[in-house]
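MODEL INPUT / OUTPUT PAIR
PAIR INDEX: 1
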Amino acid sequence: MDLARYIDHTLLRADCNESDIRALCQEAIEHGFAAVCVPPYFVALVRHLLEQHNSKLVLATVVGFPFGYSSTPSKVEEIKKAVDEGADEIDAVINLCAVKSGQWSFVENDIDSMCTAARLRGKKIKIALETALLSEEEIRRIAIILLAAQPDFVKTSTGFHGSPTLQTVHLLKESLGNQIPISASGHLDLRQEAEAFIEAGVQRIGTSSGVLLVKR
C-alpha cells in the first residue's frame, strides 16, 4: 500500500518553531505526502517554501483549533485569512459546547458558515469532530447536518482529545454513506493501524508520525 498519499503530515504543537515547520515541509515533499498541516501562523511561510520548491503539495491549516468554541464569525474570518495567505485546505473544528448543550440550530449554522466561507474562496474544508468526546447519538445527529452542508471531508478528531477508533469510522461510514470522505486524525503511529483505517474506508490520515509510518 502506498501509505504516503493518504497522509496529512501534521505539526500543530503550541511550541513548534520555524525550523520545525521547515523540516516538516521538507519531509512532506521528500516522501510525497498528500498534504502538510501547520498552524495558521506559519501558512504564509509554508506557501513561500512550497513555491520555492515548485511543489504541488497541499497546504492545510486549522480553524477554531483545538476546542472549536470560538464564535462562528471569528472562525469565518480565520478561514478568509488562511486562504488569503495561501492555504489550500481548512481543518475547522465544530463547537462541542453547542453540541453538548443540544443547540443543534447553532451547530448547523456554525458548520454551514464555515463550509460556505471555504467554498466561496474555492478551497476545500474538513470539518473536525472530536469523536472521543461524542456519544453515538451525537455523532449521528452531526452526520445529518454534515450531509446537508457537504464539506469535502469529515475529520474524526483534532488529535488533542483522544484518537479515533475503527468502531467510530464504521459509525461515520454508516451515517454518511459514501457521500463525504473521512479523515482520521490522532495518535496513529503504527503502519498496521494506519492501513486498517484505510481498509475501513478512511481516505486521509492526519498524523505527526508520517515519516515513521512510511518507513515501517
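PAIR INDEX: 2
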Amino acid sequence: GSTAIPGRRAPVFLANQFALVIRGLMAEALEPYGLTHQQWGVIVAIVREPGTDQRRVAERRNIDVNTASRLIDELEALKLVRRVPSPTDRRANQLLLTRAGARLQKMVQGPSLSAQDRALATLNKREKTLLCDLLTRVVEANRGYAVPGVGRRKPVRKASEHPSSALA
C-alpha cells in the first residue's frame, strides 16, 4: 500500500496520546508534593549531575534556557534548589538541592517511578524493554527535530522590521 504506517495508526497521534497519558499519571503523582512534571525534571537533572548549571539543565531536559531559568527560580522560591557561584565560571551558577529539596526528592522518587510503571502496566517486561528501545532508536535517528521550538511557527516580521527595508 501507499501508506507508511501499518494499519493506518498515525505515530504523531499515538505519540501525543502516550505523552498525555504519561503527563497525566505524573501530574497525579506529583500533585500531593506541589510539583509540576517540569519542576520534577529539573530536580532529577540536578540529582543526576550535582553542581550542574542552568544551560546543562536546559540541554538535559530539552527545554529552552529561559524556561529552565523560570523553573529554577520557582524551585529556589520553594527553597528546594539553591544557586551557588561556579568556582570555574564567573558567569554561571552551580545548582544544588537544599536539604528540603533532597528530602522531597527521596519522597517523590517512588511515586514518580510508580506512575511511569502504571503507564506501561499493560505490557510485559520484554515488551516494556522493546518499547523503550524502539522509542530510543526513533528519537536518536531524528535527534535534530527533538529540540525546543521545533514545529512552532516562526514569528512574522512586519515590513518595517525586515532587514531589506533598511536599504530602502
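PAIR 2 NOTE: The first strand starts at residue 81 and ends at 85.
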